């Protein structure tokens, strides 16, 4: 048999693969940073600047999107139950 036994990667090949993976990670990091910056810019345009001041602004800035979604879900569920109770009691 004329098959060569594989002895592993050379130090140059390992360095090249490491550099390539670092570049890929940096590209993904930059892509993520630019996406977040774009999202922040779009949400900043939608929010009024005077909302950020005072206690209400501090409270609202402490929540993120999932907190708002969870609170909205709970509020809608409670309102739905309340509405159903009111319509059933009228019948």
Give me the secondary-structure topology:
Elements: H1 11-46, H2 54-62, H3 65-90
Shape: elongated
Regarding quaternary structure, what we see is single chain
What fraction of the residues are assigned to beta strands by DSSP?
A: under 5%
Instruction: Give the ordered list of helices and strands.
Output: HHH
User: What is the arithmetic mean of pLDDT?
Assistant: 81
Description:
This protein is an all-alpha fold. It has 3 helices and no strands. The protein is elongated and about 90 Å long. The protein starts with 10 loop residues before the first helix and ends with a helix.
Keywords:
mainly alpha; 3 helices; 78% helix; 0% strand; elongated
In brief:
The chain is mainly α and about 90 residues long. It has helices at about 10-45, 55-60, 65-90.
């Amino acid at each position: 048999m004329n098959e060569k036994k594989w002895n592993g990667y050379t130090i140059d090949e390992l360095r090249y693969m490491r550099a390539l993976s670092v570049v890929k990670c940096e590209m993904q990091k930059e892509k993520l940073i630019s996406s977040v910056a774009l999202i922040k810019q779009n949400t900043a345009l939608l929010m009024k600047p005077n909302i950020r001041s005072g206690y209400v602004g501090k409270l609202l800035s402490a929540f993120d999107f999932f907190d708002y979604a969870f609170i909205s879900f709970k509020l809608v569920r409670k309102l739905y139950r309340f509405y159903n109770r009111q319509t059933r009691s009228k019948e």
